[in-house]
Amino acid sequence: MKVKIDDVAKKAGVSISTVSRVVNGYEHVSKKSKERVEKAIRELEYSPSQAARSLASQKSKLIGIIVPDLTNQYYANMITAIEEEASKLDYSIIICNIQENMKKELKYMKMLKEMWVDGVILMHEKINDETKKFLMDCSFPVVLSSVKIDDLKLPNININDEQAAFDATNYLLELGHRRVAMISGDLRDITAGISRLKGYKRALTEAGIKIDESLIKEGYFKFEDGYNNMKTLLMLKDRPTAVFAASDVMAIGAMNCAMDMGFEVPEDISFMGFDNIDMASVVRPRLSTVNQPAKLIGQVSFRTLLNKMNDKMIDEEIVIEHSLVKRNSCKEVNFEG
Amino acid sequence: MKVKIDDVAKKAGVSISTVSRVVNGYEHVSKKSKERVEKAIRELEYSPSQAARSLASQKSKLIGIIVPDLTNQYYANMITAIEEEASKLDYSIIICNIQENMKKELKYMKMLKEMWVDGVILMHEKINDETKKFLMDCSFPVVLSSVKIDDLKLPNININDEQAAFDATNYLLELGHRRVAMISGDLRDITAGISRLKGYKRALTEAGIKIDESLIKEGYFKFEDGYNNMKTLLMLKDRPTAVFAASDVMAIGAMNCAMDMGFEVPEDISFMGFDNIDMASVVRPRLSTVNQPAKLIGQVSFRTLLNKMNDKMIDEEIVIEHSLVKRNSCKEVNFEG
DNA sequence: CTGAAAGCGCTAACAC
DNA sequence: GTGTTAGCGCTTTCAG
Q1: CATH architecture assigned to B161-292
Q2: Is A62-159+294-319 a CATH 3.40.50.2300 domain?
Q3: H-run or E-run covering A241
C-alpha cells in the first residue's frame, strides 16, 4: 500500500542505500543512478517516512515553541518569523500554547521530549520549579526568547527591557510631564513585568521626581487591565498627565477609558505603549510606543537555537535594539500650572 | 544514555510487552506488575519515543494545520481552540503558515505526508490544482475550516457567509441607509470573498435597491485595503452613508480613513465589519460586526477531524451560527434628503 | 496475565 | 560508487 524505500530501490534497480543517498542529497552517487532513483521516486510518488527517519537518525526535524498566548500579536509575529526561518531548513514547528495554564507547561515539556524535538524556543517565564528542574537536565537545546529566567543559564534573546522602559518614560518627561503613571505588567514576570517597572522608576529618579506608588498599577497585559486601572488613576485627586503602559494592549485600554470618560487624548492625557503591535497604529489617536522587533527576535531566536543544536559557540545573552515610535498619543506640556 | 523500554522492563523485572501495556493503559496487566512498572518508569524518568511509536503503530499523534496567516486574530483564535482540544487527547499540532505564499502549500502538504500526520485542518482556500490533486488522493483525513473548495468534497465547517453578509447589509438597510458600499474580500476566495459579496448584493436587491458597482471595492483583508478603498469611496460625488467590509480589519481601516478625513462616525457614515475580533470592541467608536465564533469553529473542526480519523460517519457540511453584534459604529438615518 | 519475536521504514557503518 | 546489514525503540500478534 504505502510505497517505501525498497519499492523505489527495486524500481530503480539499485540498493536502498543508494536511494537513501539521493533522497538525502549526499554526494558519491553516479549521475545515472541518481536520475533513475529520482524517476522512480516521481513515478511511485514516494515520500520518506519521517518516523522511520527520526528513529534511525535520532533527529526529528522538529522544533518546539512554548508560547504564553497565540492570540497575542506580538507572539504571533515572532512565531511567524520562526516558522519562516525553520521551514527554509525543513524544520517543522510544534506549537505549545500555554494560555496561562501553568499545569500544561510540564506536560508539554514531556511531550516535546517524547517527540525527540531537536530544540525548543521558550517564550514563557512563569515556569514553576518542576519545569525548571526539567529544563536543567533535559536532552534537547533550549533557547529563551523575550524572557529571562532566574538561575537558569540558558541563552536568551531580548531587548533591554529596563532601558526601553527608561527611554519611554524619559520621553514623556522630556515632553514636560511630571506626573507620569505606569500600568505595569505582571510583576511575576522578570522581563516584561519587573524590568519595565524598574526602567520607569529609574527615569523618574534620575529626573529628580519622587516615585508616587499611587501612580503605579499592576496589570496582566490585557485590554481590560489597562481600562480598569485607568479608571482608578482618573479618580485620583492629583491625576497623572501621562501614562506609560507595559504593553500596547493595556495602553489602548487605558486610552479608551480616558476617552470614554470624556478626556481628550493627547490634549488632557498622554499615553505611551510598549510592543508596537499593528493595533498601535490603527487606533486613533495613533499610539506612541516602544518598538520591540518581534520578527527580528524570532529570527535570531531560531538561528541561535540552530547554532546551539550544532554545538556552535553562542552568546548567552543577545540584546536586540529597541526604538521609540513617536505617534500622536503624547503631547508636550507647558509647566505653568 | 537514553533510557528505553528495555531498561524499564529489566528494572521492573517484566518483559517489554508488559511495560508497553501499562504505558498505553491497556488492561490485562496485574496490579502488581503495573505498580512495579510505574515505579521503574518514575525512577528511570523513562519517556517513550514518539518516533519509535509512530513507526510501530503507524500513527503519529500529530495534526497538521494549514493557515493563511497566524497574525490574523481570527485564525489565532481558531488555532488556540484546536490546540486546546487536541492537547486534551495528547495530539500535537504542527503549524503550517502559508502567508499567501502558494508555493509553500504543496511543500507543506508533502511534509505533512512524510510526518504521517493523523489528520489535517485546512483553513486556506486559494489552493492550486497541484495541491488539489494532492488533496484528492492523500493518505490522511482532511477537514476544511472556514473555507470551502470547489469540486473537492471534503467536510467543511463554516458559518453561512452569504447569509451573514446579507444580515449585515440588511441591518444597515433597516437603519435607513440607501447608499451602502461594500469593501469585499479577495474575490478569489469563495467563502470570505465571493459569498459575502453575494449576500450584500442579495440584501440590496431584495430591498429594491439597484446595485451600484462604483460602491463595491475589492480588498485583501488588510487594514490598508480598507483605508485606501475608503479614500476612493469618499471621493465619489454621491458618497455612501454606510460601508460594510468583509473583515473587521478592513472596516477599521475604512473607519479610520473617514475619521482622518474629518468625517464623524457614525454621524456621517456608518460602518459594519465582519469577524468580531477583539479589536472591534477596542476601537472607538466600537465596531458593529458579524460574529464568527472562531473558537467554536475551531473546536468543531477538530472534533469533526477526529471523527473522520475514526472512520465515523460525518456530515459533509457543518454550519455554525453567526450573529450580529451591534455596537456604536452604525447610526439610524432619516430619509428626507 | 505475560513473554518472545517479528516487524515498522529508514540511516549509516562497513565492505566491496 | 554501490550494496549488505545491523540497528533505531517501540507495538503487536501469537503462544503459553
Answers
A1: 3-Layer(aba) Sandwich (3.40)
A2: yes
A3: none
The answer to whether B93 contacts A95, with C-beta atoms less than 8 Å apart, is yes
Q: Is the CB of A76 under 7 A from strand D?
A: no
Q: What is the pLDDT of residue B182?
A: 98
Which CATH number is A5-57 given? 1.10.260.40
Mutation site for A-interface testing, chosen from B53, B57, B95, B116 by largest number of A Cβ within 10 Å = B95
| Cα diameter, chain B | 91
What does DSSP assign to residue A262? T
Given a contact cutoff of 8 angstroms between Cβ atoms, the answer to whether A217 and A184 are in contact is yes
Q: Is the CB of B4 under 7 A from strand D?
A: yes
Cβ neighbours of residue B195 closer than 8 Å, sequence gap 6 or more = B161, B162, B165
Judge whether B124 and B103 are in contact, CB under 8 Å: no
List, in sequence order, the alpha helices (H) in chain B: 5-12, 16-23, 31-44, 50-57, 73-88, 102-114, 129-136, 161-174, 196-206, 223-234, 248-260, 278-282, 294-309
Q: Which SS3 state, helix, strand or coil, does residue B235 take?
A: coil
**Nearest in space to B229 (alpha carbons), one of B247, B205, B203:** B247
pLDDT number for residue A336: 52
Q: What is the pLDDT of residues A258-295, one digit of tens each?
A: 999 999 999 999 999 999 999 999 999 999 999 999 99
Of A304, A161, A184, nearest to A233 by C-alpha is A184
User: Hey, how many other C-beta atoms are within 10 angstroms of the C-beta on B261?
Assistant: 13
> What is the rounded average pLDDT for all residues in chain B?
93
A337: pLDDT strictly greater than 50: no
